[in-house]
Write a structure and sequence with these properties.
Layout: E1 3-7, H1 8-22, H2 31-44, E2 55-56, H3 62-76, E3 80-84, H4 92-105, E4 111-115, E5 130-134, E6 137-142, H5 144-153, H6 156-164
Parallel strand pairs: 3-4
Antiparallel strand pairs: 1-2, 5-6
């Protein structure tokens, strides 16, 4: 959703300070410290520094919105993130950049659940586990090879297996 009048920087600094406050009354981040943090994270995601002064999602392309979502994840530093169809609407370059950002952020302090219908994002973000849901239940689970198998065979065999359970 576009929010005219609220810059990306203002939104993210406010969100970060709210998170700090809710996690035990942490001290608010000052503007110079926040600018340094934001500059680091924007460089990681190959975002032009002008993004900081743009109004949130106002006139953003699909790829720009996705990169700002990953920037939000980078700045707020959650323990766990759910990325629901992050690859939707991204061109090849934006997909690569967003994926590189996710890979750089994922680790022992950040778990990521990627929800997708397509293999292409998994060419960049290597999953540890792949689960396929059918009617809200796990129908099949496996490693990264399962995603390749799905790409090759489609979903029919999974649906058939789910009916047999």
């Amino acid at each position: 959703m576009a929010i005219p009048g609220v810059t990306v920087a203002n939104f993210l600094r406010t969100a970060l300070n709210a998170k700090r406050k809710s996690n035990g009354g942490g001290k608010a981040i000052g503007i110079p410290e926040f600018r340094k943090l934001m500059t680091q994270k924007m460089q990681l995601l190959q975002l032009d520094s002008a993004f900081a002064t743009r109004y949130l999602n106002d006139g953003f392309s699909g790829g720009e919105k996705k990169r700002v979502e990953i920037l939000q994840m980078a700045i707020l530093n959650p323990e766990f993130a759910i990325l629901d169809e992050t690859d939707s609407g991204l061109d090849i370059d934006a997909l690569r950049i967003v994926s590189e950002g996710v890979n750089a952020l994922t680790g022992p302090n950040l778990g990521v659940l990627v929800i997708t219908h397509y293999q292409r994002i998994l060419n960049y973000i290597k999953p540890q586990f792949v689960h396929v849901l059918v009617s809200g239940k796990f129908a099949v689970s496996g490693g990264p090879e399962l995603a390749l198998q799905l790409e090759e065979k489609g979903y029919d065999w999974v649906r058939e297996a789910a009916v047999g359970k």
